[in-house]
Amino acid sequence: MADTTPKSNGAGEPIITVRNMGKSFDDFVALRDVTLDVNRSEVLCLIGPSGSGKSTLLRCLNFLEAYDAGEVRLDGELIGWQEGVSPRKARSSGTLRKQRQHIGMVFQQFNLWPHMTALENVAEALIQVKGMGKAAACEKAQAALAKVHLSDKAQSYPANLSGGQQQRVAIARAIAMEPRVMLFDEPTSALDPELVGEVLAVMKEMAAEGMTMVVVTHEMGFAAHVADRVAFLDAGRLVTCAPPADIFAREPDDARVRSFLQTYRERNVV
Amino acid sequence: MELDLFVRYGPALIRGFGVTILCWAAGSLGGLVLGFVIACLYRWSIAPVRWVIYAYVEVIRGTPFMIQLFILYYGGPYVGLVLSPVQAGILSFIVYGSPYFSEIFRSGFNAVPKGQVEAARCVGMAEATILRRIVLPQMLVPITPPLTNFFIILTKETAILSVVTVPELLYETQTMAAETFTYVEPFLVLSLFYWLMVIGTNWLGGRVEARVTRHLKRA
């Protein structure tokens, strides 16, 4: 069931390594002892019941949440915390910004900047962060918008775009920075059902081009058909991480996976 | 109506109007800037600084403007701060307006969704850039109406400056009234001047509002 599109070279070795990672909010333990690799050019879907820690795990990968135990590394570099310093000390804001430039993120609520046109949303970071000239940035932003099939909406403000279009602009904003990995936090959960398809189609195209993607999703169809591996979380723990064929098998080994997928089966989603 | 009175006192009234506009413009713009600085400090500084700011805001908001003006003008010299009436008027206006402005800015900061800032952080934007490019332009949408409103309120607060002999509009009008024993006409003219300021400010606020909300228009 996994997508059989050939991946670009360098596929296979891990690009993100998560080791014994944990995160607590006061007394609440959101994540404990998570160990996980994301391979280059892989699509990894994170699934699980709400409150299981999927989004928190994703947000720890780019240090939007500061994990408080274990390690997250991108290409071997420790994310967020200074290397080998105990007790932990956060990296300088400049270093953190550099690290984040390599990690694109797409949010459930799109989070486009409403006072900027689609083109300006995409070009903003190219100008302000990468220091590109306005003309060059706009040209690159146009190319990114073309990738998400929105060339004709470049001059529209977010208020005049549908949810699906807004999310595709948000994807263009992230890919224009040429990140090494892309994180998606429930990218289709805020969309009307008829708009989900256009966003998933763009994500499939990115996957086919070899983008490394970590996707928190409730779209079991996407997880089953596009993901290379699916990780199931429950109560802050990584229960299993396996190819979708195993996870979505008629009788998954783990009882928690079974009961979680039951509700989807009842709706004939997988 | 004794029109010749206005020929005689016209120049003084116009001068007074000029002083009123000067005190209002300098005082409220200064208050706007100070209020913004206060709101930023409150948001991004350590707890002791926040307590000081909190106390400042509460004290200034909790006391009448006239008292603040008296303390600054008559009390200032005791600590070596000797000010002309106009200087005292402008400075006290800045102090008086700043906590109100800072509260408006504070509500503006809170009105910008957290996700907007997170999205900017995710593409590696620096905090100062986020403030300038993302947060400020967006908070202008909810805060422009209350800012306009407060500027309008301040136009009329300038009248209080007459108590420390700032030669502003009310002061000149009172002089005219006292010297000529006419009371109705001068104060009608006075009202007209304030009304001009208010509609001018209101018009300007409307223009700013149209400018900062243009992205919300349906195409």
Description:
The complex is a heterodimer of chains A (270) and B (219). Chain A has 270 residues and is of the alpha/beta class. Chain A has nine helices and ten strands. In chain A, a hairpin with a 2-residue loop joins strand 1 and strand 2. The longest helix of chain A is centred in the last third of the chain and has 16 residues. Chain B has 219 residues and is mostly helical. Chain B has one domain: Orthogonal Bundle (MetI-like fold), CATH 1.10.3720.10. Chain B starts with a helix and ends in a 7-residue tail after the last helix. The interface between A and B is medium-sized, with 33 and 25 residues.
Task: Please write out the topology.
The complex is a heterodimer of chains A (270) and B (219).
Chain A: E1 14-25, E2 28-39, E3 43-47, H1 54-61, E4 69-74, E5 77-78, H2 93-101, E6 103-106, H3 118-128, H4 134-147, H5 163-175, E7 181-185, H6 193-208, E8 212-216, H7 220-226, E9 229-234, E10 237-242, H8 244-247, H9 255-266
Parallel strand pairs in A: 3-8, 3-9, 6-7, 7-8
Antiparallel strand pairs in A: 1-2, 1-4, 4-5, 9-10
Chain B: H1 3-44, H2 47-62, H3 65-75, H4 85-111, H5 114-122, H6 127-157, H7 169-180, H8 184-212
Helix pairs in contact in B: 1-2, 1-4, 1-7, 1-8, 2-4, 3-4, 4-6, 5-6, 6-8, 7-8
InterPro entries (chain A): AAA+_ATPase, ABC_ATPase_HisP-typ, ABC_transporter-like_ATP-bd, ABC_transporter-like_CS, MetN_ABC_transporter-like, P-loop_NTPase
Family (chain A): Belongs to the ABC transporter superfamily.
Pfam family, one (chain A): ABC_tran
Total number of strands of chain B: 0
In the predicted model, the low-confidence regions of chain B spanning at least 5 consecutive residues are none
CATH hierarchy, class of chain B: Mainly Alpha
What are the secondary-structure elements of chain B, in order, as H or E? HHHHHHHH
Structural class of chain B: mainly alpha
Helix content bin of chain A: 25-40%
The biggest sheet of chain A amounts to:
6 strands, mixed
CATH architecture of chain B: Orthogonal Bundle
The helix content of chain B, as a percent range, equals over 70%
Discrete helix count of chain B: 8
Q: How far apart are the first and last residues' alpha carbons of chain B, in Å?
A: 54 Å
- The percent range for strand residues of chain A is 15-25%
The biggest sheet of chain B, with number of strands, parallel, antiparallel or mixed sense and barrel status, is: none
Radius of gyration of chain B: 21 Å
Write down the overall geometry of chain A: globular
Mean pLDDT of chain B: 88
Q: Give the strand content of chain B.
A: under 5%
What separation lies between the terminal Cα atoms of chain A? 12 Å
Tell me the name of the CATH homologous superfamily of chain B.
Answer: MetI-like
Radius of gyration of chain A over all CA atoms, rounded: 19 Å
InterPro entries (chain A): AAA+_ATPase, ABC_ATPase_HisP-typ, ABC_transporter-like_ATP-bd, ABC_transporter-like_CS, MetN_ABC_transporter-like, P-loop_NTPase
Keywords (chain A): ATP-binding, Nucleotide-binding, Transport
GO molecular function (chain A): ABC-type amino acid transporter activity; ATP binding; ATP hydrolysis activity
Domain ABC transporter (chain A): 16-260
